[in-house]
Amino acid sequence: MRRFVFSACIALALLHASTLAAQERIEVGVFLDYLGISQTSTNNFGLGGRFGYRIHHDVMLEGELAYDYGINFDEVYHNLTTGNIVAIENTSIGVTHFLVGPKLQPAGGGFRPFVTLKTGFLDFRLAPSLIPYSDVVSAVSGIRTSSLNFAMYPAGGVEANLGPVGIRLELGDEIYFNNGAHNNLRITFGPQIRF
Question: Nearest CA to 28 among 171, 185, 168, 173?
């Protein structure tokens, strides 16, 4: 009987240890997203989700997808020959983000700082232009003519966890490349679960 009880205790301890290790392996979360687009001077807000898989003791490979809803801004059009302002049009812009990369963070603990460097793309969705003239150009013609842009995202933040449930705050510079690099403040905040 003592051997049975001892064996049962060891089996439960191993099961509990494997469950705790599994909680550290995968992270899934949703977040509120803020992006300040430098070219349009707009403050875009949206929703997103992320999935992370621990590939090393202190490294997670993360992927995230977010959509920031359309925000209106005044788009300025210039005459190609004179450079004078021809028109100002109210335009809507929405942004889709897709980023993948490593997150460096200690595997244990309830309060954990982290840093990340992700790459991917930003896809800008602008309302169609109402200006039909061929001799005028938009002040944001780069994102109007090439809406899908390579992006790089260095960031840092903190996570606070109580068991498998936690909350995450992240702050970074989402840099997209369209006729040069454009730096944009990005902040995400939301809950996550570790499996």
Answer: 168
Whole-model pTM: value is 0.80
Cα separation, 89 vs 45, whole angstroms: 22
Best CA proximity match to 151, nearest among 35, 41, 26:
35
Query: Which residues sit opposite 88 in a β-bridge?
Result: 76
> Torsions phi, psi of 129, nearest 5?
-70, 140
Contact by Cβ (8 Å): 115, 155: yes
Instruction: Say which residue, 134 or 156, is predicted with more confidence.
Output: 156
First and final C-alpha spacing in the chain: 35
* Closest listed residue to residue 158, CA positions, set 187, 136, 182: 187
For the record, the structure tokens of 11 come out as: 């089996």
- DSSP three-state, residue 18: helix
Tens digit of pLDDT for each residue in 67-89?
Answer: 998 788 888 888 888 888 888 88
Q: Considering only CA atoms, which of 59, 160, 163 is closest in space to residue 105?
A: 59
Q: What Å distances lie between residue 44 and 34, 62, 90, CA to CA?
A: 6, 23, 16
